[in-house]
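Weekly puzzle thread! Below is a chain. First person to post its structure in token form gets bragging rights.
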Amino acid sequence: MVRVPKLNRADAEAALRNPLAFIADRWTPDPRTVRRAALAALVMSVVIVVTGGAVRLTGSGLGCPTWPTCTDDSLTTTRAMGFHGVIEFGNRMLTYVLCAAVGWAIIAARAQKPWRRGLTRLGWAQFWVVMGNAVLGGIVVLVGLNPYTVAAHFLLSTALIAIATVMWQRAREGDAAPRPLVGKAVQQLVWFLVLASVLLIAVGTVVTGAGPHAGDSSEVDRIPIDWETVAKLHAVLAWIVVTLTFALWFVLKAVDAPKGPLARTRELFIVLLAQGVIGYVQYFTHLPEVLVALHMLGSCLIWIGTLRVLLSLRERPEAGLDLPGPSAEVPVGTHACFTRTR
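Winning reply:
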């Protein structure tokens, strides 16, 4: 058995002053542990979105009618509140699981040797977004599921997913300066794809705010707009994203791009097609709850996939590792939009 070292008073005081530094002095995680911790935070950021959708789709948004307690007299749900109270309170409890996953990612990043300050900051950024979204979630309840606050709640969760995705990617890279694997023309195309994806997600929140799933069986305000009209705009944006993704794949294939960007683009294209099928089926079947939940999951996966395409356009080797980079000048012609290391 491993002997646990005794802590003296100085150790205890050091742990109280800076617990992360105290842990880092006594533990060095394996790089795989750091990557898994970052992935766990990303997975939980998706889970909390899907379970939040389940709260809305089951009409349990006001299962706990107040915040931060569940009722005026009880911190937790009561038997009289029934199924809806359990669903809403359960989703609140998952926030603590998310905090634990983010905390684990922060600790693992801080304890890694050498210490990667940027990776730790990404973990802390997630923590503060989670705290902000928890407060916003409470405001959503206090204002009776106002659709604009619900949309802001989802968009902030999308920002959390973005930070978690970047941290997961950075945990698998070094800290050297990024080296581009493609030319500026391809990078610009991908940025158009990212912008279109952001618009797609934003319009999706409007569809939700105007659609039939209000989040509670009581009278809940909706965005005063025809949701079917907005859903059609949402579909147009989805086709734009699909078209940009296919165009990107075609360009990368034509210029013999590295496997990374090609693989990430192909994965995104497959997720987009699956999401499109779900979207059209749910529209023509009058938005059944199960398909809406799957559509929310698909939205998260599309966002992650888009960010992974963007992050795959460069490589970051270990600091100090001298790898040949792209030439300073790009030849004129078909390959002018693409550079790579060989």
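Puzzle host: Confirmed. Bonus trivia for everyone else. Strands lie at 179-180, 314-315.
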